[in-house]
Write a structure and sequence with these properties.
This protein is mainly alpha-helical and about 100 residues long. The protein is built from four helices and no strands. The longest helix has 23 residues. It starts with a helix and ends in a 14-residue tail after the last helix.
C-alpha cells in the first residue's frame, strides 16, 4: 500500500511540475507575486517527485493526506492549463455565484 501511495504521489507531483513548467503567458500580464508562487509550486512539486525517485524520502513516509493535496493541486493545474493566476484568482462572475440570501 505504501508503494502505491508513493507512486501516485510521485505521478501527481511530476504532472503538476511539468504542467507548470510548460505554461506560456502568450500576452498575459507579468505579475511578480504570481510568478513567485509558480516558482515555489514548481520547486516543491518537482522536489517532492525527485526526492521519492532518488530515495531521499522513503515510500512509507507518504500519507494519504499528502496524496490528497498533491492530487488536488494536480487537478487544479491541469484545469487552469498551468496558469497559476487562474488558480489563485478570487473574482467570480456575479451571474454564476450562489447567494444564500436569495
Amino acid at each position: 500500500m505504501d508503494h502505491l501511495l508513493a507512486l501516485l504521489y510521485l505521478l501527481a507531483n511530476a504532472i503538476t511540475c511539468m504542467r507548470l513548467l510548460i505554461y506560456r503567458r502568450e500576452g498575459a500580464r507579468f505579475r511578480p507575486l504570481v510568478s513567485l508562487a509558480a516558482w515555489v509550486l514548481i520547486a516543491s512539486t518537482g522536489g517532492g517527485a525527485l526526492g521519492l525517485l532518488v530515495g531521499l524520502y522513503p515510500p512509507s513516509h507518504v500519507h494519504l493526506t499528502d496524496l490528497g493535496m498533491a492530487a488536488v493541486l494536480c487537478v487544479l493545474s491541469l484545469t487552469a492549463r498551468g496558469d497559476v493566476a487562474a488558480i489563485l484568482r478570487t473574482d467570480h462572475d456575479p451571474k454564476s455565484s450562489y447567494s444564500a440570501r436569495g
